[in-house]
Amino acid sequence: MSWMDILALVVPATVFLAAPLIFTALGGLFSERSGVVNIGLEGLMVIGAFTGIVTTLYLEGLGFGAWSPWLSLIAAVLVGALFSLFHAVASITLKADQIVSGVALNFLAVGLTVFMVRNIFGKGQTDYVTYRISRENIPLLQDLPLLGPLFFQRVYYTSFLAIAAAIVAWYVVFYTPFGLRLRSVGEHPMAADTMGIKVNKMRYIGVMLSGAFAGIGGAVFALTTAGNFAGNTIAGQGFMALAALIFGKWHPLGALGAALFFGLAQSLSITGQAIPFLQNVPQVYLLIAPYVLTILALAGFVGKAEAPKAIGKPYEKGSR
Amino acid sequence: MIHKWLNKGKVTNILIPLISVFLGIIVGAIIMLFIGQNPFVGYSALLSGVFGDVYYFGEMLRMMTPLILAGLAVAFAFRTGLFNIGVEGQLIVGWLASVAVGILVDAPAIIHLPLAILAGALAGALWGFIPGFLKARFYVHEVIVTIMMNYVALYVSNYLIRTYLLAPGERTERISSSASLASPFLQSITDFSRLHYGFFIAIFACLILWFILWKTTLGFELRAVGYNKHASQYAGMNVNRNVILAMVISGGFAGLAGAMEGLGTYGYMSILAGFTGVGFNGIAVALLGANTSIGVFLAAALFGGLTVGAPNMQSQAGIPPELVSIVIALIIFFVASSYLIRLVINRLQKEGK
Fold first, then answer.
1. What is the pLDDT of residues A54-77, one digit of tens each?
2. Would an 8 Å CB–CB cutoff place A96 in contact with chain B?
3. Model pTM?
4. Looking at CB atoms within 10 Å, which of A96, A124, B67, B127 has the fewest?
5. Are A104 and B333 a contacting pair at CB < 8 A?
6. What residue ranges define each of the domains in chain A, with the CATH number in brackets?
7. ipTM of this predicted complex?
8. A107 lies within 8 A of chain B by CB
């Protein structure tokens, strides 16, 4: 097996597995930069996956054909944003413990979606969708030497969308007034309030953006990888996205890099059997790599990860 | 009349969980109405799924056992101001360690059983030590570390079973009978449910938690650290040591919960496709139980009952059993958002005056 063959096997799988993580980690970024911890990313992905699959099935039935999964991504964004209001209301307005609220959101998401699936389909999982988001060859670019086979042949458009979203998020968070306001309420809400920024409103926006992004992340996972929805369709990807966010130090491009890295680890645990020098490495090391690395990053062994300063604290007007 | 009664802070503390449970059940009823079912039929099917048969009652007590221990684990950490989301992982390693000792060690029951239980507790304690140590030494937030440790526990345990303990059916061998908590007597009086002696261990653990927290110097220090870390430091307490100790003890309770599953309910450990959910329910149990022994016991009874009764709701009333997870999630929401309930209670108090 030549190096080229190995790369042609690993690189597309990496980008493809990273896409849902990138979207969801960016979602977590908006919420946490505004000062609201979002442990509920996993649950929001579940909602997104459910919405993506059920809407696609419905639209297929109406005859939308290959457009169905793409329209469903939009639905997943909207439903994800709406569902995240649970977390926003509890943790911002009702001053609930943000971590507890996130945990409850995860519970609620799985319970509610499987409940509805049982109600609609009469069984624990949905039917498979006919039209998935499929692999495409990108015209022209696919013929590039070297790069073509790695990045532009049999790829998902959603992967490019995810990478573009990360770059846009980077610009928005660091180079726009909105981004400045968002970061200010996450670092020093009191000072932001003094400057006339509506702290709670910014936080609501942050949390709803997290719902929108995690929603599309879940839907992308369901519509590219799974093809149907059940209670265990999303199994830890939300927490892995959270890990990517922390490992990437709450920076959009950092999160992008970390998500790609975790995608690589995942792809190696799948494709590793075919790669000569990885065959004897137990899969378990690659499976736990993202989690162990996050712990090490937090402990400062991989460079100190600095969280937004006001994270986790409800804002009370007039308090310091 | 009512405001005098409401004035006592303790009553408010009991009212909030009760109101939360009530609200959770009401919303559950609304959801049933929404899908065109009769809530009374649904809830009575749920109740008869718990109390209708001594077998189901035995199963509820069986279900309560790990829930109590997981709830105690979360509650104990909460008292020191720590949030242990890692109960699930600590439970998994505890389950594996106890089963491993139950299979690999050969000894008379008087030694073997305590040894297997201890192995479970120690494995959980070790899994709690890591986030505790990182918190004390590097100021790393325990929530993220414990979440990550959950996944490490899941994958490593599956790997160890697959590599060293595999038996047909994607699981380990059965443990030797000398390490088993199974009780023919308890089974026979509950129409052969899987109720086992672990239930008494869980009750005993409630007493232990109460004793440690309220009757020992260690408990006083742990609670003090939970109330105000800086004041405790100033008073000469070793905050870092207490943080580590709290996580170790919390993990020990969680590991014990796993040992109950391994030595009592199942007698083996399967390769897990995902989390058991017991650890996460433990968070709900601790929150609802206001981090007290008696509260944890009662909350475990409620959630154990809901879980055991849910399948009956499906078979008798055609309501998906997931309704129960929705109700549990909503109860957590309401407890966590008790700000709203407190607000209403305060309003009532003022009007009464």
1. 999 999 989 888 889 999 999 999
2. yes
3. 0.90
4. A124
5. yes
6. 3-131+158-302 (1.10.3470)
7. 0.87
8. yes
